[in-house]
Amino acid sequence: MRFWEIDFMRGIAIILMVIFNWSYTLKYFNIFIPQAGWIFWFLFPRFIAGLFIFIAGISLVLSYNHIGNIKLFNQKNIKRGLKIFGLGLLVTFVTWLLFPNEFIIFGILHLIGLSIILALPFMKFKKLNLILGSVIFTIGLILQNFTFDFPWLLWLGFYPTNMVTFDYFPLLPWFGIILIGIYFGKLLYKNNKRTFKISDLSNYLNIKFVSFLGKNSLLIYLMHQPLLILILFLLGFL
Length: 238
What we know:
Number of helices: 8
Shape: globular
Radius of gyration: 19 Å
Largest sheet: 2 strands, antiparallel
Distance between the termini: 45 Å
Order of helices and strands: HHHHHHEEHH
Number of strands: 2
Mean pLDDT: 94
Strand content: under 5%
Protein backbone atom coordinates (compact mmCIF):
# COMPACT_ATOMS: atom_id res chain seq x y z
CA MET A 1 0.00 0.00 0.00
CA ARG A 2 1.29 3.44 -0.94
CA PHE A 3 0.60 6.47 1.19
CA TRP A 4 0.16 9.58 -0.93
CA GLU A 5 1.78 11.87 1.63
CA ILE A 6 5.09 9.96 1.41
CA ASP A 7 5.25 10.24 -2.38
CA PHE A 8 4.19 13.88 -2.08
CA MET A 9 6.94 14.73 0.43
CA ARG A 10 9.49 12.94 -1.75
CA GLY A 11 8.18 14.91 -4.73
CA ILE A 12 8.60 18.19 -2.85
CA ALA A 13 12.15 17.15 -1.99
CA ILE A 14 13.01 16.36 -5.62
CA ILE A 15 11.61 19.72 -6.78
CA LEU A 16 13.69 21.57 -4.19
CA MET A 17 16.75 19.52 -5.16
CA VAL A 18 16.36 20.38 -8.84
CA ILE A 19 16.00 24.08 -7.97
CA PHE A 20 19.17 24.02 -5.90
CA ASN A 21 21.27 21.89 -8.25
CA TRP A 22 20.33 23.92 -11.30
CA SER A 23 21.12 27.13 -9.39
CA TYR A 24 24.48 25.67 -8.40
CA THR A 25 25.21 24.60 -11.98
CA LEU A 26 24.45 28.06 -13.35
CA LYS A 27 26.71 29.54 -10.68
CA TYR A 28 29.45 26.97 -11.32
CA PHE A 29 29.64 27.88 -15.02
CA ASN A 30 29.30 31.62 -14.27
CA ILE A 31 26.14 31.83 -16.36
CA PHE A 32 23.97 33.28 -13.62
CA ILE A 33 24.81 33.79 -9.98
CA PRO A 34 21.72 33.88 -7.75
CA GLN A 35 21.87 36.53 -5.07
CA ALA A 36 21.59 34.12 -2.19
CA GLY A 37 23.45 33.76 1.06
CA TRP A 38 24.58 31.10 3.49
CA ILE A 39 21.07 29.82 4.16
CA PHE A 40 20.53 28.93 0.50
CA TRP A 41 23.99 27.61 -0.36
CA PHE A 42 24.68 25.74 2.89
CA LEU A 43 21.52 24.99 4.87
CA PHE A 44 19.08 24.52 1.98
CA PRO A 45 20.84 21.53 0.33
CA ARG A 46 21.30 19.85 3.70
CA PHE A 47 17.63 20.30 4.50
CA ILE A 48 16.71 18.74 1.14
CA ALA A 49 19.08 15.80 1.65
CA GLY A 50 17.85 15.34 5.20
CA LEU A 51 14.27 15.17 3.93
CA PHE A 52 15.20 12.52 1.35
CA ILE A 53 17.09 10.48 3.93
CA PHE A 54 14.34 10.79 6.55
CA ILE A 55 11.76 9.59 4.02
CA ALA A 56 14.07 6.68 3.11
CA GLY A 57 13.94 5.59 6.75
CA ILE A 58 10.14 5.80 6.85
CA SER A 59 9.95 3.92 3.54
CA LEU A 60 11.89 1.02 5.03
CA VAL A 61 9.19 0.65 7.66
CA LEU A 62 6.43 0.82 5.04
CA SER A 63 8.23 -1.82 2.99
CA TYR A 64 8.54 -4.10 6.01
CA ASN A 65 4.88 -3.61 6.92
CA HIS A 66 3.90 -4.50 3.37
CA ILE A 67 6.13 -7.58 2.99
CA GLY A 68 5.73 -8.89 6.53
CA ASN A 69 8.39 -11.59 6.16
CA ILE A 70 11.74 -10.43 7.53
CA LYS A 71 13.76 -12.77 5.29
CA LEU A 72 12.05 -11.57 2.11
CA PHE A 73 12.29 -7.98 3.35
CA ASN A 74 16.04 -8.30 3.90
CA GLN A 75 16.61 -9.93 0.51
CA LYS A 76 14.63 -7.25 -1.30
CA ASN A 77 16.33 -4.35 0.44
CA ILE A 78 19.84 -5.76 0.14
CA LYS A 79 19.25 -5.86 -3.62
CA ARG A 80 17.72 -2.39 -3.53
CA GLY A 81 20.58 -0.99 -1.48
CA LEU A 82 23.20 -2.51 -3.78
CA LYS A 83 21.37 -1.11 -6.82
CA ILE A 84 21.29 2.42 -5.41
CA PHE A 85 24.92 2.17 -4.25
CA GLY A 86 25.86 0.92 -7.73
CA LEU A 87 24.18 3.96 -9.26
CA GLY A 88 26.23 6.05 -6.85
CA LEU A 89 29.39 4.42 -8.21
CA LEU A 90 28.19 5.27 -11.72
CA VAL A 91 27.82 8.91 -10.65
CA THR A 92 31.35 8.72 -9.21
CA PHE A 93 32.72 7.44 -12.52
CA VAL A 94 30.90 10.01 -14.67
CA THR A 95 31.84 12.96 -12.46
CA TRP A 96 35.44 11.71 -12.35
CA LEU A 97 35.52 11.77 -16.16
CA LEU A 98 33.98 15.24 -16.41
CA PHE A 99 35.27 16.94 -13.25
CA PRO A 100 38.37 15.01 -12.09
CA ASN A 101 39.25 17.58 -9.42
CA GLU A 102 35.80 17.71 -7.80
CA PHE A 103 34.16 14.38 -8.54
CA ILE A 104 31.64 12.78 -6.20
CA ILE A 105 33.27 10.12 -4.03
CA PHE A 106 30.54 9.42 -1.47
CA GLY A 107 27.35 11.28 -2.26
CA ILE A 108 23.67 10.92 -1.49
CA LEU A 109 23.19 7.73 -3.55
CA HIS A 110 26.18 6.02 -1.93
CA LEU A 111 24.79 6.97 1.46
CA ILE A 112 21.21 5.84 0.88
CA GLY A 113 22.28 2.59 -0.78
CA LEU A 114 24.65 1.64 2.03
CA SER A 115 22.29 2.89 4.74
CA ILE A 116 19.42 0.72 3.49
CA ILE A 117 21.60 -2.36 4.02
CA LEU A 118 23.09 -1.22 7.33
CA ALA A 119 19.65 -0.33 8.68
CA LEU A 120 18.22 -3.84 8.30
CA PRO A 121 19.35 -5.11 11.75
CA PHE A 122 17.77 -2.01 13.31
CA MET A 123 14.27 -2.67 11.98
CA LYS A 124 13.30 -4.54 15.16
CA PHE A 125 14.00 -1.50 17.33
CA LYS A 126 11.86 1.55 17.93
CA LYS A 127 12.93 4.02 20.62
CA LEU A 128 16.51 2.78 20.40
CA ASN A 129 16.61 4.03 16.81
CA LEU A 130 15.67 7.52 17.97
CA ILE A 131 18.42 7.47 20.59
CA LEU A 132 21.11 5.95 18.35
CA GLY A 133 20.10 8.16 15.45
CA SER A 134 20.40 11.28 17.57
CA VAL A 135 23.81 10.20 18.91
CA ILE A 136 25.12 9.36 15.41
CA PHE A 137 23.84 12.66 14.05
CA THR A 138 25.46 14.62 16.88
CA ILE A 139 28.81 12.85 16.46
CA GLY A 140 28.68 13.57 12.74
CA LEU A 141 28.04 17.27 13.35
CA ILE A 142 31.06 17.40 15.64
CA LEU A 143 33.24 15.62 13.05
CA GLN A 144 32.33 18.25 10.46
CA ASN A 145 34.46 20.74 12.38
CA PHE A 146 37.64 18.78 11.64
CA THR A 147 39.64 17.50 8.69
CA PHE A 148 41.88 14.44 8.66
CA ASP A 149 45.06 13.34 6.88
CA PHE A 150 43.72 9.91 5.87
CA PRO A 151 41.14 9.41 3.11
CA TRP A 152 40.01 5.81 3.67
CA LEU A 153 37.35 6.74 6.25
CA LEU A 154 35.79 9.59 4.30
CA TRP A 155 32.66 7.46 3.80
CA LEU A 156 32.25 7.36 7.57
CA GLY A 157 32.54 11.11 8.09
CA PHE A 158 36.27 11.79 8.46
CA TYR A 159 36.67 14.53 5.86
CA PRO A 160 40.12 14.44 4.23
CA THR A 161 42.21 17.59 4.22
CA ASN A 162 42.07 19.44 0.87
CA MET A 163 39.33 17.20 -0.56
CA VAL A 164 36.98 19.03 -2.92
CA THR A 165 33.77 17.33 -4.05
CA PHE A 166 30.38 18.34 -5.39
CA ASP A 167 28.42 16.04 -3.10
CA TYR A 168 29.37 14.55 0.25
CA PHE A 169 27.01 12.68 2.59
CA PRO A 170 28.91 10.32 4.92
CA LEU A 171 27.34 7.87 7.35
CA LEU A 172 28.10 10.25 10.20
CA PRO A 173 25.83 12.17 10.63
CA TRP A 174 23.37 11.08 7.93
CA PHE A 175 22.82 7.44 8.90
CA GLY A 176 21.39 8.87 12.08
CA ILE A 177 18.59 10.45 10.05
CA ILE A 178 17.79 7.04 8.54
CA LEU A 179 17.38 5.57 12.04
CA ILE A 180 15.27 8.52 13.15
CA GLY A 181 13.14 8.01 10.04
CA ILE A 182 12.66 4.35 11.00
CA TYR A 183 11.54 5.43 14.47
CA PHE A 184 8.93 7.83 13.09
CA GLY A 185 7.88 5.28 10.47
CA LYS A 186 7.07 2.82 13.24
CA LEU A 187 5.34 5.57 15.21
CA LEU A 188 3.17 6.85 12.35
CA TYR A 189 2.44 3.67 10.36
CA LYS A 190 1.39 0.32 11.82
CA ASN A 191 -0.09 -2.72 10.09
CA ASN A 192 -0.26 -0.87 6.77
CA LYS A 193 -2.37 1.87 8.36
CA ARG A 194 -1.72 5.39 9.55
CA THR A 195 -1.79 6.08 13.27
CA PHE A 196 -2.89 9.65 12.50
CA LYS A 197 -5.70 11.26 10.55
CA ILE A 198 -5.12 13.09 7.28
CA SER A 199 -7.48 14.12 4.52
CA ASP A 200 -7.18 12.20 1.27
CA LEU A 201 -5.81 14.77 -1.17
CA SER A 202 -4.42 12.22 -3.59
CA ASN A 203 -7.00 12.97 -6.32
CA TYR A 204 -6.06 16.64 -6.64
CA LEU A 205 -4.17 17.27 -9.87
CA ASN A 206 -1.29 19.19 -8.26
CA ILE A 207 -0.90 16.52 -5.57
CA LYS A 208 -0.91 13.82 -8.24
CA PHE A 209 1.80 15.63 -10.19
CA VAL A 210 4.10 16.15 -7.21
CA SER A 211 3.49 12.56 -6.07
CA PHE A 212 4.35 11.33 -9.56
CA LEU A 213 7.68 13.14 -9.27
CA GLY A 214 8.18 11.51 -5.88
CA LYS A 215 7.54 8.04 -7.27
CA ASN A 216 10.18 8.67 -9.96
CA SER A 217 12.65 10.63 -7.83
CA LEU A 218 15.61 8.33 -8.53
CA LEU A 219 15.24 8.70 -12.29
CA ILE A 220 14.79 12.46 -11.98
CA TYR A 221 17.89 12.68 -9.78
CA LEU A 222 19.98 10.85 -12.36
CA MET A 223 18.66 12.78 -15.36
CA HIS A 224 18.12 16.38 -14.25
CA GLN A 225 21.77 17.49 -14.33
CA PRO A 226 22.63 15.95 -17.73
CA LEU A 227 19.42 17.51 -19.07
CA LEU A 228 20.38 20.98 -17.86
CA ILE A 229 23.92 20.66 -19.21
CA LEU A 230 22.52 19.54 -22.58
CA ILE A 231 20.18 22.55 -22.66
CA LEU A 232 23.02 24.93 -21.77
CA PHE A 233 25.19 23.35 -24.48
CA LEU A 234 22.45 23.68 -27.12
CA LEU A 235 21.91 27.31 -26.13
CA GLY A 236 25.62 28.01 -26.54
CA PHE A 237 26.49 28.67 -22.91
CA LEU A 238 29.00 25.79 -22.77
